[in-house]
Design goal:
The chain is of the alpha/beta class and 273 residues long. The protein has a single domain, classed as Purple Acid Phosphatase, chain A, domain 2. It has helices at 43-67, 79-93, 110-122, 169-180, 199-202, 218-229; strands at residues 9-16, 23-29, 97-100, 127-129, 148-152, 155-159, 185-188, 233-238, 245-250, 253-257, 265-272. The strands form two sheets. It has a six-stranded mixed β-sheet. Strands 1-11-2-3-4 form a five-stranded mixed β-sheet, covered by helices on one side. A hairpin with a 2-residue loop joins β9 and β10. The chain is globular, with a radius of gyration of 18 Å. It binds fe (ii) ion (FE2).
């Protein structure tokens, strides 16, 4: 069983949404940061990949150690090998959907995009992907710009691109229209935000890792206001921080920040009625 591989470490969260029938199990991973070389890679591409591999060898360990998260020899594998393991785990666990909350690629490069697209195409289950701040708004075969949804019985998962600590006007309008439909929403995005409800915990992180009400970006403020005050939005899944946190960003509404998938972090997310 791949789930017994010492590479993985698991957290589990359950969100209760009244009216939902049964138990819905999802696999949430974030920040796999893959770097890939293939037959089309130039020497410059290969040098960049090798540079980034060395960089992450240092920093993923640093993030994990500082957060007190598991980090030993099993977690030092290449990020692309980590993605392979995560995808194999998803095949074994068969969640209702695989949810990837950004920085899937370490940076935009054709070999990485092609590899990621192939892994997604080969995956037998449903999935939803949002881009991270290391990525472009769209990547052919991997994710597309705009708001995307997966519907389940009694709730839906909605992916919103906030990788630049803002949301486009168009995406905000699309999210608001979904909220107006009244179907309970679990939102996925890349960058978490801080509100007065979770300020104490979030302020332990450096400000690079989140945005808050002090932002001058009007759309970001509107996005946070919608997430806090609209009854349709029940919780948030995100990443970006490279360590695991769960905070209540509004009363009864969790913001689940998945840790680094490249170092074995897996968030099992359950929705129950
Ligand atoms: Fe990241």
């Amino acid at each position: 069983m791949i789930k017994d591989d010492p590479f993985f470490w698991f957290k589990e969260n359950t969100l209760r949404i009244p009216g939902v029938k049964g138990e819905h199990v999802f696999m949430h991973i974030s920040d796999t940061h893959i770097e890939v070389i293939d037959e089309t890679s130039t020497q410059e591409d290969i040098d960049k990949v090798n540079y980034q591999i060395e960089l992450w060898r240092k920093y993923k360990g640093k993030f994990a150690t500082e957060a007190g998260e598991p980090y030993g020899e099993p977690q030092t594998i290449l990020n692309v090998e980590a993605l392979d393991k995560q995808m194999a785990l998803a095949e074994e666990m068969k969640p209702e959907a695989l949810l990837l909350t950004g920085d899937n690629l370490d940076y935009m490069h054709p070999a990485g995009a092609k590899y990621f697209a192939k892994k997604l195409a080969e995956y037998s289950g449903k999935y939803l992907v949002v881009p991270g701040n290391h990525e472009d708004p769209s990547c052919e075969g991997c994710w597309e710009a705009g708001v995307h949804t997966l519907d389940f019985e009694g709730f839906r998962i909605v992916a919103v691109d906030d990788r630049n600590k803002t949301v486009t006007r168009e995406d905000l309008d699309a999210l608001r229209a979904l909220c107006d439909e009244g179907v309970p929403i679990v939102l996925m995005c890349h960058v978490p935000f801080s509100t007065p409800y979770c300020k104490e915990e979030m302020s332990k992180l450096i400000s690079y890792f989140y945005f808050d009400e002090t932002t001058e970006d009007e759309n970001a403020r509107e996005f946070m206001d919608l997430c806090v005050n609209n009854d349709a939005i029940k919780g948030i899944l995100c990443g970006h921080v490279h360590s695991y946190h769960v905070v209540e960003y509004a009363p009864g509404k969790p913001q689940i920040i998945g840790s680094q998938g490249m170092a074995g972090a897996v968030d099992i997310f359950k929705v129950v009625g």
